[in-house]
Write a structure and sequence with these properties.
The chain has helices spanning 11-15, 209-214, 277-280, and strands at 3-4, 18-19, 34-36, 61-63, 76-82, 91-96, 101-105, 115-116, 130-132, 141-143, 145-146, 153-155, 163-169, 172-176, 182-186, 190-193, 270-272. The longest helix has 6 residues, at 209-214. The protein folds into two domains: 3-201, OB fold (Dihydrolipoamide Acetyltransferase, E2P) (Beta Barrel); 222-281, Irregular (Ribosomal protein L2, domain 3), CATH 4.10.950. The radius of gyration is 22 Å and the shape is globular. It has a seven-stranded antiparallel beta sheet with strand order 9-16-10-13-14-15-17, with no helix packed on it. By secondary structure, the protein is mostly beta strands. It is 5% helix and 23% strand.
Length: 281
């Protein structure tokens, strides 16, 4: 794909950049692989807003994506590369030898006509193939990694994400995550060869507030612009500092830079935290 600019008719369009969609081979999605998406506006079953700043947005349907790749040792042909409204990454429509069709997240470099396969055995290490981490050589780029065998891909699913295999030690593979964190994952977990497609997604400029509304994102009001009854940062005459030693959320809890990760059982599998990422750059 490429980044496209348009004629600067308005201030918003002057700053905006767009996807040219030249890498897509099909416009209409596969009907059998669609599901309805209900808009909830950040509300729970009681109608209370539990996630702020959500609402509106363009109407869309969910694409049913195969994250497990459990059709082992059955070759499949890439029929089309398609747009996914729920993610920045492209989708690849696979046509298996037994006639079944499934969507997968397309790795970068996968094109129409390519043959791909998923297996628990050692197969060719080419883009789009899925196999256990224990067969991946050190330094290779992978994506769509499972955290537990058979669970389905959980790691590196967004546009341009990539995981690097650092090596295999005992019953674990050491991975360098997209965040810079280095952690252990069971070597029986499946992964897909290659980086996730559409890495240029992060360079898009929306240009105007309206394009955020298309994505279902509502405006965010600063706490310091509110009244004291609405936010701990609120109140005062004119523009001024928040008047607190540390910033807080609307509910009075510490905000901005506070570590929120709880003690998890998987902490023992983390070799190096992502907080050191800035030092490596």
């Amino acid at each position: 794909m490429g980044i496209k600019k348009v004629k600067a008719n308005t201030p918003g369009r002057r700053q905006a950049t767009f996807d040219d969609f030249k890498d897509l081979s099909k416009v209409r999605p596969e009907k059998r692989l669609l599901a309805p998406k209900k808009k909830r506006g950040g509300r729970n079953s009681q109608g209370k807003i539990t996630v702020r700043h959500r609402g509106g947005g363009a109407k869309r349907k969910i694409r049913l994506i195969d994250f497990k790749r459990e059709k082992f040792d059955i070759p499949a042909t890439v029929v089309s590369i398609e747009y996914n409204p729920g993610s920045g990454a492209r989708l690849a429509l696979l046509n298996y030898a037994d006639g079944e069709k499934r969507y997968i997240i397309a790795p970068a470099g996968l094109v129409v006509g390519d043959k791909v396969m998923s297996s628990k055995k050692l197969i060719e290490l080419k883009v789009g193939n899925a196999l256990p981490l224990k067969f991946i050589p050190a330094g290779m780029a992978v994506s769509l990694v499972e955290l537990e065998p058979g669970q389905g891909a959980k790691i590196a699913r967004g546009a341009g994400n990539v995981v690097y295999v650092m090596g295999i030690e005992g019953k674990y593979a050491q991975l360098r995550m997209p965040s810079g964190e280095i952690r252990k994952v069971k070597k029986e977990c499946l992964c897909t060869i290659g980086q996730i497609s559409n890495p240029e997604k992060r360079h898009f400029s929306l240009g105007k507030a309206g394009r955020n509304r298309y994505l279902g994102l509502r405006p965010t009001v600063r706490g310091t612009a509110m009244n004291p009854v609405d936010h701990p940062h609120g109140g005062g005459e004119g523009k001024q500092p928040i008047g607190l030693k540390h910033p807080k959320t609307p509910w009075g809890k510490p905000a901005l830079g506070v570590k929120t990760r709880r003690k998890n059982q998987s902490d023992r599998l983390i070799i190096s935290r992502r907080s050191r990422r800035s030092k490596r750059k």
